């Protein structure tokens, strides 16, 4: 059972993962992580993601709400950055985790393809 002091931390973590739970938001974060000085203008994010401006705005609002990104307005442009440098590391760890899983699946597929196939032929042949 969670203590009352622990519950908010788990809720905050869950909200972080909710914020990450869309492919477009992951793409936005990876673009920010790879950008020079880890910042990018909305115009750059629009061009790189191919999203409509309204959709990009909604995704950025979600990321801001959960404190994953921050924004700075300067005249007519808005620039975004990762709220914390460890977000880039979190994305890198997730990529390694997923690629390792795919490598294991690929190895299992290769092994399965190497099995004798005589037993797979239908009984009506």
Description:
The protein is α+β, with helices and mostly antiparallel strands and 125 residues long. A hairpin with a 2-residue loop joins strand 2 and strand 3 (77-82). The termini are far apart. The chain has helices at residues 7-19, 23-34, 42-49, 53-65, 86-113; strands at residues 39-41, 69-74, 77-82. It is extended, with a radius of gyration of 21 Å.
Largest sheet: 3 strands, antiparallel
Distance between the termini: 59 Å
- How much is the average pLDDT? 88
Q: Which range best describes the helical content: under 10%, 10-25%, 25-40%, 40-55%, 55-70% or over 70%? A: 55-70%
User: What percentage of amino acids are in beta strands?
Assistant: 5-15%
Q: Over all CA atoms, what is the radius of gyration?
A: 21 Å
User: How many alpha or pi helices?
Assistant: 5
Low-pLDDT stretches are: none
| Beta strand count | 3
Global shape: extended
How are helices and strands ordered from N to C? HHEHHEEH
Which strand order spans the largest sheet, edge to edge or round the barrel? 1-3-2
Which secondary-structure class do the elements indicate? alpha+beta
């Amino acid at each position: 059972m969670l203590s009352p002091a622990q519950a908010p931390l788990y809720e905050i973590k869950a909200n972080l993962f909710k914020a990450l739970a869309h492919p477009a938001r992951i793409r936005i974060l990876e673009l920010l992580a790879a950008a020079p000085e880890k910042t990018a203008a909305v115009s750059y994010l629009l061009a790189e993601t191919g999203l409509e401006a309204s959709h990009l705005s909604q995704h950025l609002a979600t990321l801001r709400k959960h404190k994953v990104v921050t924004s700075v307005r300067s005249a007519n442009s808005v620039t975004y950055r990762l709220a914390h440098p460890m977000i880039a590391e979190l994305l890198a760890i997730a990529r390694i985790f997923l690629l390792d899983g795919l490598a294991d699946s690929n190895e299992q597929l290769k092994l399965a393809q190497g099995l004798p196939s005589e037993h797979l032929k239908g009984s009506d042949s």
